[in-house]
Amino acid sequence: MTATTDVQKISILGKESIHCGFHLVPYIVNTVLTELPASTYILITDSNIAKFYLPAFEKEFRSTLSGLLNGTHARPRFLSYIIPPGETSKSREGKAAVEDFLLLNKCTRDTVILALGGGVVGDLVGFVAATFMRGVRFCQIPTSLLAMVDSSVGGKTAIDTPHGKNLIGAFWQPEFIFIDAALLETLPSREFSNGMAEVVKTAAIWDDSEFNSLESRSAEIFAAIQTPSTNYAGRSEKTRSDAQKLLLSVIIGSISVKAHIVTIDPTEKGLRNLVNFGHSIGHAIEAILTPTILHGECVSIGMILEAELSRQMGILSQVSVGRLTRCLKAYNLPVSLADPRIANLPSAKLITTERLLDIMKVDKKNQGNDKKIVLLSRIGATYEQKASVVPDGLISKTLSESVTVVPGIPSFNPVKMTTPGSKSISNRALVLAALGTGICRLKNLLHSDDTQVMMAALSELKGAKFEWEDGGETLVVHGGNGSLSVPPKGKEIYLGNAGTAARFLTTVCTLVQKPPTGESETTVITGNARMKQRPIGPLVAALRANGSEISYLESDGCLPLSIRPNGLSGGIIQLAASVSSQYVSSVLLCAPYANEPVTLELIGGQVISQPYIDMTVAMMKTFGIEVIRRVEKDTGKLLDIYDIPKGSYQNPSDYSIESDASSATYPLAIAAITGTSCTIQNIGSSSLQGDAKFAREVLERMGCEVNQTATETTVQGPPIGQLKAVEEIDMEVMTDAFLTATVLAAVANGKTRIIGIANQRVKECNRIRAMIDELAKFGVSTNELDDGLEVFGKPVEQLRKGVSVHCYDDHRVAMAFSVLASLVPGTILEEKRCVEKTWPNWWDDLQNKIGLEVKGVELSTPSVSLSSTPLSPKSVILIGMRGSGKTFIGDLAASALRWTFIDADNYFETVHQVGVRQFVHENGWPAFREAETKLLKDLLTEKGHDHVLSLGGGIVETPAARDLLKDWVSSGGLVVHVSRNIGEIIEYLGTEGSRPAYGEPVSEVFERRATWFAECSNHRFINHVEAFADGKIVVDPTDTKRGVREEVSRFFHHISGVSTNLAQNLMPGHRSYFLSLTYPDIMLALPKLEELSAGVDALEVRVDLLRSKEDIEPLGKHIPSETYVADQIAALRRVTSLPIIFTVRTVSEGGAFPDHAQKEAFSLLKLALSLGVEYLDVEMQLPEQTIKQLVARKGATQFIASWHDWSGRLKWNSPEAQAMYNIAAQNGDIVKMVFTASTMQDNFDCQAFALKMNGRPGAKPFIAINMGAVGQLSRILNTTFSPVSHPLQPSRAAPGQISFAQVQKALHLIGELPAKKFYLFGNPIDHSLSPTLHNNAFETLGLPHTYELLETAEVGEDIKNTIASPDFGGASVTIPHKLNIIPLLDQLTPAAKVMGAVNTIIPTNDGATRILVGDNTDWLGIRGSIAARVAVGQIHAALVIGAGGTSRAAIYALNDLGAKVIYVWNRTRSRAEELRTSNLDMNIQVIDELGQWPSGATAPNVIVSTIPASETSFEDEPDRLFYPASLYSYRDGPAIVLDLAYKPVETPLLKLAKMTASNWDTAQGVEVLLQQGYAQFEKWTSRKCPQGIVSRKVWEVYYNRV
Ligand SMILES: NC(=O)c1ccc[n+]([C@@H]2O[C@H](COP(=O)([O-])OP(=O)(O)OC[C@H]3O[C@@H](n4cnc5c(N)ncnc54)[C@H](O)[C@@H]3O)[C@@H](O)[C@H]2O)c1
Ligand SMILES: [Zn+2]
C-alpha cells in the first residue's frame, strides 16, 4: 500500500526529514518502524485528535508489528497516551504526567515518541523527549495548520508557567516531521485561519509570488479543507485533486521558507528573527487576549500594525499595507483591534498603548531597552535581514487610536504632491475592467476598504481575476466578459460600510446567470450595521420593475439583499435618482450586459450629482461603449434619458486612474488656511470629477490665488486669518467637499452659507449634523438648513483649543478637521483609522509630504462626554418648573455650601428696576425672554463662582439660553434640575401670583419643557416637600424639615465635590459593609431603616428588585420605570444620609434585570448619576462604549466595577480571575468580584487572591466574596464593602448573605475582633445614662464590647491601671476629671486643646505602640443639636449663658456652625471676658443683661445655657437668675434654645420659650448627651451609632428616673 503513497520531502538542517502528502498513516508507521528501530513506540495526542485518528494509527501499528518476525529480540511495543486538549496541558504538571506515564511503562532510552497533534502536543512532547533519559528520539505529526507550518518545524519545544508562555524549553530536533494535509479536514475552520496567519506571514517576509497566490486563491484554499477527500484521494499524485495540490503547495511553500531560515540560523541569532514579523506587537496583544483570541489572530493584527509602522517610517508603501490587509481578511483573520470579535471582549478594554509597550519590553529580540521589530520593505522582503531597532515613540504613534496635529507652517511649503487614486474612478474602473474582455492594467488604483471590498466581491462572483504587478503598483485585471456565478452556498458577500460597492454590486449581482444545473441559489450581499441603514430602495425598485427578483432580508429599503440569478432583462428602466447618483451609475455600468438594450429614464424630480453620472458615461466610452443622452428636439435641452447599446467592454491594456479630487481638497485647504502654497498633480480643469472645481469655486472666492492647468492645480492661501467668508456657495456638484469648505468657513471673517448638500445627511454619518456638533466644540456657531448650513466664522485665536473631535467613523470628517487642526492647537482627531476608506496613509502623508507633525494620542475617555470635573468651584445653577421649589432648595443649598444664593427673578428686578410680571405686561414675552437670556449670560460671567443661581422656569424656552446652560455643563459646571410632582406644583401655583400666569395649562408647559430640562442639566434633585409634609413617608413627621435640609446639604456637597458623602471606612485597616435592600418598594423599609442599617456604611438599592404596585402583578416585567426609581431614591434619602450604592443586577449576574435590556440599564445608570448617587455598580460585561460613556459623566460618583460568576465555573487562582480584576481595576474606583464557592478551599483562595491584589501599590478597594452557603466565610473575611442582609428583611439579596451583627460575632469567634472594655471616669456618676447608651449600641451591632462605670475621687492608680490594660477600648471622662486626665494622655485633638478639657479617650495604634488620644465631643453634642434645627450659616447671632468649661464647648460649636456673633453672659463678667480674650479669632461680645442686645444688632436665634436650671426662673424670684421673654425676640425664622441641664425635664428657660414664640424650638440636656455619645461611639468603633434604638432606651431610663 505504501508503494502508492507519494510524498514530497523537504530538507532541514541538511536532512530530508520533512515528508509531506495526504493520508500518510501507513507511510508514517512504516517509515518509523524501518528507520527508527526501538523497543517502544509511544504516540501522544490530545483527546480531540485521538477521536479522529488514534484508531487508524493503532490499527496500523498493531498489524505491522504483529506481522514482524519474532526473532531474538522481543517484539517492539506500541503504546498511546492521551492528554486533555488546550494550552493548559503545556505545563509543568502536563509534562510530569507524560513523564510519569513513560516511567510507569518502563520506557528506556531507545523509546521513540510520536507527537500527534497541534502545537500544544508538539511543544510538550518535544520537551519531554528532550529531557527524558537525557533525550530520546521523537517525530512530529502535526495536525493543525499552525503546527504544520510553524511549531513542528525548527526544533523549538517548550512549556508554559504562570509567569508566561514558552518560558521553559529546549531546542530538540525531531527525527521526522510528517505533514499529512488530509488531517486538516477535521480541523475547525477558525484553527485553519489561525495557521494561515503564519503562512501569510512567511510569504510576506520572503516570497512575493507565493504571496500573490495566497492573495488571489483564498476561496480555493478554503475549499480544499472543506471538501473531505474520500477513499484516500490524494495519497498518490494521480488521485490528487487540484484543490489538494494547491493546499499542499501552500503548506510546502511555507515550510520550505521556514526550513531554509532555520537551517541558516538554527538557534535564532539573527535571520531567524524574521519569522517574528507581526509577533512583536502580536505577542503583546496575545498576552492580554489569550486564551480567547488565538495566536494567529493576534499575529494577524500585529502584522498590520507592524506594516503600518514601516509605512509611517517611509519604508513600506500603502499598496503593500493594503494587500496584506486584504489577504489576511480573505482568510477570515482580524486585521485591527476594532474587529468586533475583539472589540466586544471584556479584556479588550485592557489594551492600551502603554500596556502594549510595557509587555513588549520583555521580548527576547530586544536590544537592551530598544525594541526590535521586523520591518517589511515590500511584499516578500524585509528592510533588514534581521529585526530593526524602532523607537518607542514611533510604535506608540502607530498603536494609538487617536492623533493630534502640531499646528504650524507646513515645512514642505511649497508642497507638491499627488493624492491617492479617485475612489469613484477606481470603483468604476474595477467594474468596467472586470466585466470587460481582455487584460487591463490599472494604475494608481486606490487601495482602500471600498476597492478591496469590490475586488473581493468580484472574485467571489468569479467575475474576474486580479493580480498585482510592480510590487502592487499595478493591478492586472483579467476581465470575465460579464460571466458571473453565485458564490458557494451560504457564503454572503460582505461589504462592510462600503457604500459605492454596495450600490454598484447590486446591479452587478442581477447579471449573474442561472447555473446550467438549474440549482436555484441566490446571491446575498450584506454589510455592517451602518450599511444596513443606508438606502438602496430606489435602485432595488427599478431593478425589480425590470424583472429582477430581489428581496430584502432584514429591513425594507436596505441591505442585506438576496438576488436571484436571472440576468438583467433590459429594455426601459425607470429609476428615481434624487437620493444618489450611484444608483444611476450602477445601472449604466451593467446595462450593456442586459438581454435587451437599455433605456434608462431618471424620474422623481431633481437628479443628484450629475457630474458623477457624466463620469460614468465618459469612462464607459473609454471602455468601448457609447451611451447616448437624449436631448429635447426643439430646445436642445439635455434630458434625463440614456440609451445604452448591448455589448461588451473592450479593456484598454492600460488605464491610469485620476487622483481623487475630494482628497485633494485637504492639502489645498491646508495651504489656504496656513497661507502657504500647494500643488496637486494629476488633477486639473479637465478632470472627470466635480470636486476638481473646489479650488476655483470655493478657495478662490475665499481669497486664495488659484492656478489650474488641464492637469494640475495650485493654491496659494492668503496670510493667516484673512480667509473671506462667502455669502452663498452651492456645492451640489462637489458635495463631498463641503466638509472641507465648512472648516475653512469656521475661520473666515463672516458668515458662509453652504447649500446643495442635502445628500450628505445619508453618508457614512449625517455629515451636516456632525460638522455642526463638532464645530460647536470649537465654539463656532452654525445654523442648520434643509440642504446645507451656515457657518459663522471666528478669528482663529477665539477658537477653543484642545478640542477632541469625534469622527463618526467618517474619513471626510477626520480629514476635514485635520485641516482645522493645522491651525488650532491641541485638536485631537479621535479614531484616526477611519481615513482608511479613501486615504489610508493620510496621517503619514500629512507629516512626510506636507510637513506637519502628527502625534499619537491616547484618549482616556472619548469626547461623547459632556461631563464635569467634580471639584469645580463653579456656581451651581438650578432650573425647573415654576413652583418646583428652586428658591427653597437653592437657599438651603447655598447656606449648606456657604455660598451666596441668587434668585434670578429678584436679580431681574434689581437690574431692570421693575418686577417680572410688570416687565412682561409692558414689553411682552419675547422681550422678556431676550432680557432673561442676557441676564443669564451676565450672571454666568459675574457670579460664575461660589453662587447658587436659581433661574426662572421658562429660561429653557429660549434656544440661546439652553445653549448657555449646555455650555455650562460641558465646561464643568453643574446645572441641577429641581423637579417636583406636577400635581403639587399646580396646587402650589394656585396660591402664588408674583409671576405672570401661564397662558396655557401648566401640564402642557410641563410636558414641553421636560426634555429641555433634562438636556440642559447634569443633575436632578427631586423635591418631595409636600409628600413628606403629609407624613406619608417619614417615620417622624416632625423631622420633615430636618430631613430635607440634611438631604439638600448632602446632595449639594456631594455633587459639587466640596465634601463628598462617601463611606469613611472604605480604607485599608478598616472593615466596611453595605446593606442590600431587597424590598420591591423601599417605602416599606423606611420605618425600620435605622435598625436595618445598624452598623453598615452604605445602602445598596437593588434596582432590579424594585417593583411598583402596578409592576407586581404582571409577571416578567422586570424593568422599573425611571420615575419610580427616582422616587424611591428620593424617599430613602429623606430618612438617611448613608451613601447609596445603585445596582442594576442582570439575570446572568444573579439579579433580576433582563440581560438583553442594555439600553434600559444604561438609562437607569445615567439616571443614578444625575441623582448624584455616591456609588454606582457597573457590570463589566456591559459594552465597553456604555462603560466609557458612564465614566465620562460620573462626576463625584464612585464606580464599583463588578463581575459575578453565578455558574461556579471561575476559580480565584485562574488567569481569568486575574484578567477580570485588571479590567475592573481599570474601570472602577472599587473592584468587586463575586464567584460561587463549592468548597471551603474556594474561600481561602478568594482570601489569598484578595490579599495579593490588595498588596499591590495603589491597589483600589476590593470586594472579593463567594456566593452560596459555603461562601459565607468569605463574606466574614472580606474587608471592603461586605454585602450584608438583615433578619428583618423579606429576603436576602444573594445566597449566603448574612447580617452585620452575625459577621461581627463570627469575627469575634475567629479572633479578628477581640472584646474591649470601655469606661466612664468621673464622680459622681451612678446616675449616668452613658452605659445605657453604649451597651445598647454594642449589642445592636453585635459587637462583643462592654461599657462600665469607674467612679473614683481622683485620677489615680485605678484609672492608670485601667487605661494601661490591653483590653482597654476607650473611656468617657466627666466632672471632675476632665482636666486632670490630660497628663496621662499622649495626644490631644485640636478641639480638646482649644477647650482645654477632655471628655473622651481614644486608644489608637501607631504601628507597634499604642497612643492615647484625648478628645472632646461635648461640642459635637451641642453642634449636632443645633444643626438639626438651624442650617449651617443661618445663625445670625447666638447667646451663651454661663462661662464654664461647657460654655467653651458651646462657643466652639457655634463658631463652627458659622454664627456671625456670639454673645456671652455670665454672672461674673470677668469670666466671660476671659472667654472672649482666649478666643480672639471669633466674634464674641460680652453682654451685661440678658435679653438686651447691643443697639442695632440682631437678636440671637440660638441660645445655649450651661448653668444649672435650679438657679433660674422666668418669674422674678429671689436668688434666681431671671429670664426675660425678650430673650426670644427673634421671630424671622428657625431658632433653637438648648438647655444643657438634665433636670428638670422642662427647665424654666425651655418653658419660657414654648410660652413665648412658636418659631423657637427647644432641646434638653439629654439630647446633647446623646449627640456627644453618638460621636464618642463613632470615634471608638468607627461605626455609626444606631441612634434611634439607643435614644429610645436612654429616654426610657431618663423618664423612669425623673
Ligand atoms: N515551537 C514553536 O516554534 C512554536 C511556534 C508557534 C506556536 N507554538 C505553540 O503552538 C501552540 C499552538 O498550537 P495550535 O494552534 O496547533 O494549538 P493546539 O495544539 O491547541 O490545537 C488547536 C485545537 O485544534 C485541535 N486540533 C488540532 N488538530 C486537529 C485536527 N486535525 N482535527 C481536529 N481538531 C484538531 C486541538 O485539539 C486544539 O483543540 C502554542 O502553545 C504555541 O506556543 C510553538
Ligand atoms: Zn507564531
What does this structure look like?
The chain is α/β, with parallel strands linked by helices. Helices cover 38% and strands 18% of the residues. The protein contains 53 helices and 64 strands. Strands 49-48-47-46-45-44-43-50 form an 8-stranded parallel beta sheet. Strands 1-2-9-6-5-3-4 form a 7-stranded mixed beta sheet, with helices on both faces. Strands 52-51-53-55-56-54 form a 6-stranded mixed beta sheet, with helices on both faces. Helix 24 links the parallel strand 31 (729-730) and strand 32. Helix 8 crosses helix 9 (242-264), helix 18 packs parallel to helix 20 and helix 30 (916-942) runs parallel beside helix 31. The protein is globular and about 130 Å long. 51% of the residues are buried. The model is unreliable at 861-872 and 1027-1040 (pLDDT under 50). It binds nicotinamide-adenine-dinucleotide and zinc ion (ZN). Residues 150, 198, 279, 295, 299 line the site of zinc ion.
Q: Give the strand order, joined by hyphens, for the main sheet.
A: 49-48-47-46-45-44-43-50
Q: What is the strand tally?
A: 64
Q: Looking at the structure, what is the overall shape?
A: globular
State the share of residues found in helices, binned by percent. 25-40%
Low-confidence stretches: 861-872, 1027-1040
End-to-end gap: 113 Å
What do the pLDDT scores average to?
87
In DSSP terms, counting alpha (H) and pi (I) runs of 4 or more, how many helices? 53
> How much of the polypeptide forms β-strand, as a percent range?
15-25%
Strand-pairing-aware structural class: alpha/beta
Q: What can be said about the biggest beta sheet?
A: 8 strands, parallel
Radius of gyration (CA) equals 41 Å
